[in-house]
Design brief:
The complex is a heterodimer of chains A (about 400) and B (about 70).
Chain A (H helix, E strand, L loop, with lengths): L7 H4 L5 H10 L3 H8 L15 E11 L2 E14 L3 E14 L2 H6 L3 E16 L2 E12 L2 E14 L4 E14 L9 E17 L2 E14 L7 E5 L7 E5 L5 E15 L3 E12 L4 E12 L4 E12 L27 E14 L9 E19 L13 E16 L1
Antiparallel strand pairs in A: 1-2, 1-18, 2-3, 3-4, 4-5, 5-6, 6-7, 7-8, 8-9, 9-12, 10-11, 12-13, 13-14, 14-15, 15-16, 16-17, 17-18
Chain B lengths: L2 H17 L11 H4 L9 H14 L17
Classes of the chains: A mainly beta (about 400), B mainly alpha (about 70).
Amino acid sequence: MRAARPVAPVAAVGVTEASLLMMRALGRGILQKGLALGLLTAPAFGAVLPEDRADVLYHSYYGGGVTIQGPSLLVRKQFAGKFSASANYYVDNVSSASIDVVTTASPYKEERTQYSVGLDYLHDRWIMSLGFSSSEENDFVADTFSIGISQDLFGDLTTISLGYSLGDDQVGRRGDPDFADSIQRQHYRLGLSQILTRNLLLGLSFESITDEGFLNNPYRSVRYLDSGSPLGYSYEPELYPRTRTSDAGAMRLRYYLPYRAALHAEYRSYADSWDIKSDTVELGYTHPLANGWTIEGKLRFYSQDRAEFFSDLYPRSQYQNFLARDKELSTFTSQTIRIGGTYDILEAGWRFVERGSVSVMYDHIEFDYEDFRDLTQTGLAPGEEPFYNFGADVIQVFVSFWF
Amino acid sequence: MPKLLQMSLLCCVVALAGCSLEPWVKPYERDHIADPIMSFDRDPVSSSYIHHVYEAREGARGATGSAGGGCGCN
């Protein structure tokens, strides 16, 4: 992981007589502030440990009858000059009356808690990372171990990284003590960051994931035509394949504008062994203002094709080997618009805190399904219901301290 | 010359050139790149959350640019 504002000891490497002369020539102003916080405290590229930092975040998601909220706490601290340890505590408090739930089951509430710890070790131009994460809810336990390594090359213009994660999940089913299954997950990651010009950064990411085990949701059902039912259709449990392999590749560009603002663009391509294919495009803009505020905006467009075994309505019961009516596996598009702001606080420091910031981010997401129908619309023939769509509001409020 | 040998030699030349590559953006020219607004992941606590939001509602996963092992939530 690369720090946004790397730390002082390694930063000194980037301070040459030429850079000091250049800074004097630039004089006072925003750019100088940027230099003081960035270049002179450390180059953005170069093997450096992440900054010492603490974040307290509150998150809220509301959309499609689902409310999820909770805190996330992240603390990171260096020690012994070569190590950086991190710890994260995250909670999702879920209250769900989603379309699946209201049409086939009863609304429910549950809590998911996740603990993560990590350790980074800096050696020369290498950073080695170890991580462990444990997530727990009443019917699902997921443990993940991860390792990673990154190295800077070519005068610190290039950073390459490799990562591997191994996950072990235990799946249960509420109200069914006899049900127990598991999933093994493996992630393989490859990343590259490249300084292309003094104003342009490139990032490339590739990730392959393999899953093996009980991959369907134990509560979801598919529907099939049933002339004996008053509705004209009935439900039966979903059945997914027990393996899934996916590949994703992404390219990111970040460009520094002459008046100190940043544009970013991103494209991700995805395909998996269930025949889901998707494209994601993201465009964003970040603009610091003179009064301590930094504002940002983002547009994101996502589209995917359905899994080959997905159907909103099967012609009959047990129509094929694998059955799914999970809307996340259907054909759909989503569009996101984000506005957000960050305000700098404690710029003069306070006790052991060097500085801080308060941030608010608001995302609105619209989901439009193309082969998943809205069964809350009754009185229509099976397969004639309108396609489902919903909007979601996502709010994040967080306070960050650097020390 | 066999094609494989030619390719190997080419790789060696590229690798050796890489070792002695002069950075075309000098350290003292990286003030813009070092600005926090140019970070791909300025607030990890926020980006990992929003990736989780998308991963739970979309079929695609991975290559988000940040680590994270996936929570396995269905």
